[in-house]
Automatic annotation (TrEMBL):
Example of a GO biological process term: epigenetic regulation of gene expression
Keywords: Hydrolase
Keyword Protease: no
Residue intervals of the Histone deacetylase domain: 22-291
GO MF annotation terms: histone deacetylase activity; hydrolase activity
CDD domains: HDAC_classIV
InterPro entries xref list: HDAC_classIV, HDACs, His_deacetylse_dom, His_deacetylse_dom_sf, Ureohydrolase_dom_sf
SUPFAM superfamilies with a match to the protein in the record: Arginase/deacetylase
Designated name of the protein: Acetoin utilization deacetylase AcuC
């Protein structure tokens, strides 16, 4: 059975200006339950992790100032969110969800966080609606506990935006390989250097995108032999997305998920999936594309 992290506060403590893209956090669980993709027992409520599991990745000074509401105006503007205690509770709980997903994936093969994929957060600052880097913190957690048997991690970031924070965090960590396949002209304007970056031209369609992914990911698995995979499955690669410049169809986006998750399943690699971005004008398009990721995982692991 799939394990899925979700909490009501994923969607709620944000001002009205940010509400539309956050509706997916309410609607996606409802969609999965209504379709019978997963039973209600598949969901677990994440909790904030111990501080040590956050400051292992993030600078203690940054985390203390973040929690206390002491970011500068410039730092707050860079995150895209006005500070509030509820926002910090949300971000810390999302990170806790990905940490727990990592533990559960070691047992069940796969776990998914309805939120997460906050890949623009650096060790010492937040950017682009990301305050804490949940996949980086979970990777650091696994590596800090050798008894779990994880010695090499692969982060597969297929959001339309480069995972700049993740790339910088692990730039000197040979046990974590960062792979980002993203729109060349998309945010951030200043890219960091992942272990492998594949910047894509505007209008990249299903055939070109899937062909490149199918040529690349099996090679990375063979060359780097990871023990664990984090997959950021943003659906802002869709042609309908307001903030992306790529041109994938919903079918192509699902084929992407089938390929990535199918490889993990065949290689018996535990994988944690986080949702990342999605900004199509119709909320139904966003929810259905994210639901496809869960449908694919359910087909493989249930």
């Amino acid at each position: 059975m799939l394990s899925i992290a979700w909490a009501p506060l994923y969607a709620h403590p944000l001002p009205a200006a940010h509400r539309f893209p956050m509706l997916k956090y309410e609607l996606l669980p409802e969609q999965l339950l209504r379709e019978g993709v997963v039973p209600e027992s598949a969901f677990f409520t994440p909790v904030p992790p111990p501080t040590e599991d956050i400051v292992r990745t993030h600078c203690p000074d940054y985390y203390q100032r973040l929690c206390a509401g002491q970011l500068t105006r410039h730092e707050e503007r860079a995150t895209g969110f006005p500070w509030s205690p509820a926002l910090i509770e949300r971000e810390v709980t999302i990170l806790g969800g990905t940490l727990e997903c990592a533990r559960r994936a070691l047992q069940g093969g796969v776990a998914l966080n309805i939120a997460g994929g906050t890949h623009h957060a650096f060790r010492d600052r937040g950017e682009g609606f990301c305050l804490l880097n949940d996949q980086a913190a979970a990777a650091d957690y696994l590596l800090a506990h050798p008894e779990l048997g994880v010695h090499k991690v692969l982060i597969v970031d297929l959001d339309v935006h480069q995972g700049n924070g993740t790339a910088r965090i692990f730039q000197h960590e040979p046990r974590v390989f960062t792979f980002s396949m993203h729109g060349a002209r998309n945010y951030p304007g200043r890219k960091e250097q992942s272990d492998l970056d594949l910047p894509l031209p505007d209008g990249t369609d299903d055939a070109a995108y899937l062909g490149l992914l199918q040529d690349t990911l099996p090679r990375l698995l063979a060359e780097h032999q990871p023990d664990f995979v984090f997959y950021l499955s943003g659906v802002d690669v869709l042609a309908t997305d307001k903030l992306g410049y790529l041109a994938l169809s919903p079918a192509g986006c699902r084929q992407r998920d089938e390929f990535v998750l199918g490889l993990c399943h065949r290689h018996r690699l535990p994988v944690v999936v986080c949702m990342g971005g999605g900004y199509s004008p119709r909320i139904a398009d966003i929810v259905d594309a994210h639901a496809n990721t869960f449908r694919v995982a359910a087909d493989l692991w249930n």
